[in-house]
Specification:
Two copies of one chain form a homodimer.
Chain A: H1 11-18, H2 24-27, H3 30-39, E1 41-43, E2 49-51, H4 59-71, H5 74-82, E3 109-110, E4 113-114, H6 115-135, E5 148-152, H7 159-174, E6 181-185, H8 190-199, E7 205-210, H9 217-232, E8 241-246, E9 259-263, H10 276-286, H11 288-305, H12 314-328, E10 333-339, H13 346-358, E11 376-378, H14 390-395, E12 402-407, E13 417-418, E14 421-422, H15 423-440, E15 457-462, H16 467-488, H17 499-509, H18 515-523
Parallel strand pairs in A: 5-6, 5-7, 7-8, 8-9, 10-11, 10-12, 12-15
Antiparallel strand pairs in A: 1-2, 2-15, 3-4, 13-14
Chain lengths: 526, 526
């Protein structure tokens, strides 16, 4: 029997709030610090390890977090989710994105079909299509191969797939598996579509229109942009476009597309990277076998997330520590800092994933909650961030918990030795140094050069950023966000907060405005 | 006589803290909202206007802010700065970045030269060099024109110039003034340099090495990368490289460079976009006359910032409202949301500018302050953000003040009409709608669809994003951050918080570690 209770009604949370806080700078010093690094780590999928020794926790706090996980029934709730309960209560929907990469529990039948079979069927269809494109069996009107694939989508149809493409582009080039270059058009700003179209050879470009509902304003507008460009080039648009949409959308049966790949209502936009939304563009760019490896990494991490031993479940641990930081230590934001240029847009994806899922003020029954929910998420790759906003992270008046990600090896493998070390070693040395600088600080009589320390961080370390490890990372953060939503008792799978702006924008375009809205519309010449 | 006093010692600040708060949702409704939009705006340079009607202020709060500005002597402090006082007390340096674009006050002589003449002299040298490159008078070893310029720099040598390049790339293409494509190498991650080098034709590329000290680890490492690539292509590296550095750096007199353009210690990295740091790459990419137009926009905005009437000084008003939000309303972060895809990296530049300048815990004398200083800054372009993190901004438990930027016209001018409106109109309709949605909210019996409102925002509106308006925007935010630093009584021009990480990273590379640092170094295979 699952109880969906607010966090502040849980005895374990109240107990946790009263537990002694950890003096991070003290415990991370000397031999005690070394012991913590060895002790506080847990394996993830595909050789990744989640290290939380530099977080503001100790055995007592961790015991408290385990109790919180148990009282909040996190494992049971995840099980209910993957077994097909209606977890997205606001929209009365199942939540099945895990099923795009594996079957964690019972078969789930919805809309009269086995959903795992549905998702693998779509993957198969995407794979066959991609292979035909790569083999030159599906071509442009002149019988020539497509060389570029352009994703037209916004939000979850853009950020995740784009972040993953950037994460693997150099890897794929290195491994001779970059089949097509990918581009992305997202913004309704006409300069976005125009600039992308100016930068490609449209005659050899295949466009993927991604909209679950088939009604997303930005995406349909950008589709018109693309169709105009194709028409102006004397090309037949329907030979250059495919759709990723739901079976019930107006796009589904249209002759305007070479093919349509289906998604459904059980996968939210921000959780759709492992569905056809990510699958089509990534399979076309890298080949379906690379996308399959990505899914395999995510599936393995999902299985770890389903484990009931909190201390062996990295996503659950990460989630619980985050809740402790947000609600007991009262830290309002979190920075994601990958020491990998290839992950340059991964923070932007996590920003959507986290803030859109848990930026809520009501619980899953629509009642206001009396505690803070999702934090502000931001981040840039290291070492770039060190020369930018780290000043505030080290010496600002507010503490920002940090999530580092680092890899022992680069993707391309080209490197130089300067002063006895490679660039990759310098990169890794910097992230190690930062963790300790943040945690331990440094006394200095000159207060301007004094570092208080006590700034908590965790790091996920892997051998290399590969399709499998990108998949594992994605799953880790999706599941972390889900577990936090469970603790906060919010619905992490709807986004009612985006509706009001849409309604008002329509009113502006229809010139049905008054008051401040009319004034701003006039100022902007609408 | 200037008093450098902590904010909490000022009577005007204590009074402001006690003033009645504004119920934003109430005052922004109906006719009152329309009146506020008309009343609360102030012209900026080059046709931009700063609108703060949707901020949580009223005449009484604004009176309080004016008193705060006067008691904190903001205009006097800026005057002292541009007249050449040692405002960067930590490093005992003048602060002269304004002088790269104009002379606001007295001539300033330092190091035996008139600094305005020094900066314009460097600009002249850069312009002549760029013109020779464009004219094919300075060529590669084979006598062929350079087609690509690559900036090698990190932090302030990267973020600002990169953001400005992206802001103007499409504009320049449209106006046939894109002379060379620009690329940027910043991260010590070897995959950054390797990927950029793989993407260009090195034989026709000119590299700009940017390092004031000539000792920045990342930049020197990446220089080696580039020199290796040039050597491997059988090219003479010294014919492909220029340096932007200080006259005293080891790079200044080296034969390794075609030319050296000088900067000095009076311009901090994050304030260096209008110096040779931005000037070289932007003049080469767009032509020196475009860079001159950018400087002119910044100069005009600087003159407005120097005004003593707070209500006519947009940067000062923006700064004061930000302080009110940070210290009285207690909002810990701020989002920058340009409705312009071309400004996609402008938030990342402002993130450095703001967080590195004012993320401090000690005042300019090195004494700890008892109030919050710089907020966390983050942002992405709209409408993309609407489909990402806006959920939290609308319905999360914490309030995030917002800074919108919008333009009536696109840069490229290609557009489509769908459902009776252009994409540009849709873009503008969305930002107008968001401002009102955030401020006014919407009642709904279903609490999940309820919007509390009361979420403050301002918007800068312009006709178009051009070299002049980019310059004005840059100056506005630089001066805003400066004024906030004056109110908080911190030194906004040093960055001691970045030092500890550098020291520890060196120790890791020298294998001189123990405790947690040794453990993490081992985990990362260093």
């Amino acid at each position: 029997m699952i109880n969906w209770s607010n966090m502040d009604t849980l005895a374990s949370f109240r107990e946790l709030s009263k537990a002694d806080k950890v003096d991070l700078a003290a415990v991370m010093a000397g031999e005690s610090g070394a012991e913590r690094v060895k002790k506080y780590s847990v394996p993830m999928a595909k050789g990744l390890v989640y290290h939380y020794g530099a977080k503001q926790v100790d055995d007592k706090i961790l015991d408290g977090l385990v109790k919180l996980a148990e009282e909040a029934q996190l494992a049971d709730k995840f099980q209910a989710l993957y077994n097909g309960e209606v977890i997205n209560t606001g929209e009365k929907r199942l939540v099945l994105h895990h099923m795009t990469r594996g079957q964690l529990g019972d078969p789930v039948v919805a809309d009269g079909v086995d959903k795992r079979a549905f998702y693998t069927g779509v993957q198969q269809k995407v794979a066959e299509f991609a292979e035909k494109v790569h083999a030159g069996e599906i071509t442009n009107g002149a019988g020539e191969k497509f060389t570029t694939v352009v994703q037209i989508g916004i939000g979850g149809s853009d950020l995740g797939p784009r972040a993953i493409y950037i994460a693997l582009e150099n890897w794929a080039r290195k491994h001779n598996t970059l089949k097509m270059e990918a581009k992305f058009i997202s913004n309704v700003d006409p300069d976005d579509a125009a600039a992308v179209l100016n930068s490609i050879d449209v005659a050899h470009s295949l466009f993927i229109l991604v909209s679950k509902s088939g009604t997303t304003l930005e995406t349909l507008t950008n589709e018109s942009f693309v169709k105009d460009a194709l028409k102006n080039a004397g090309l037949d648009a329907s030979r250059h476009m495919v759709a990723v949409t739901s079976e019930t959308s107006p796009l589904a049966g249209s002759d305007d597309y070479l093919a349509a790949f289906f998604m459904d209502d059980y996968i939210g936009g921000r959780y759709s990277s492992s569905s056809a939304v990510g699958g089509a563009v990534l399979s076309l760019a890298f080949g379906p076998e690379v996308f399959a490896r990505f899914l395999e990494g995510a599936a393995e991490e999902d299985r770890l997330s389903a484990g009931r031993d909190v201390r062996k479940n990295p996503a659950m641990l990460d989630a619980l520590i985050g809740v402790y930081e947000r609600n007991v230590l009262d830290y309002p934001s979190t920075a994601v800092l990958p020491y990998s240029q290839a992950l340059s847009r991964f923070p932007a994806h996590l920003q959507q994933l986290d803030m859109e899922s848990n930026g809520k003020s009501v619980n899953r029954f629509g009642d206001p909650v009396d505690y803070q929910t999702g934090p502000v998420i931001f981040g840039e790759p290291g070492t770039n961030g060190q020369h930018s906003f780290y000043q505030l992270l080290h010496q600002g008046t507010a503490i920002v918990p940090l999530q580092f990600i680092g890899f022992k090896n680069s993707q391309i493998g080209t490197d130089v030795v300067i002063e006895g070390s490679t660039s990759q070693q310098k990169l890794c040395a910097n992230v190690a140094a930062q963790i300790v600088a943040f945690a331990c600080g440094k006394e200095d009589e000159n207060r301007n050069k004094h570092f208080e320390g006590g700034r908590p961080s965790s790091i996920i370390i892997g051998d290399q950023l590969t399709p499998e490890t990108v998949g594992a990372l994605l799953s880790h953060f999706e599941n972390k966000v889900m577990f936090q939503g469970f603790v906060w008792n919010v619905n992490s799978f709807d986004q009612e907060g985006v509706q009001l702006g849409k309604v008002l924008a329509k009113r502006v375009l229809a010139h049905e405005t008054d008051g401040a809205l009319k004034e701003f519309s006039d100022l902007l010449n609408i």
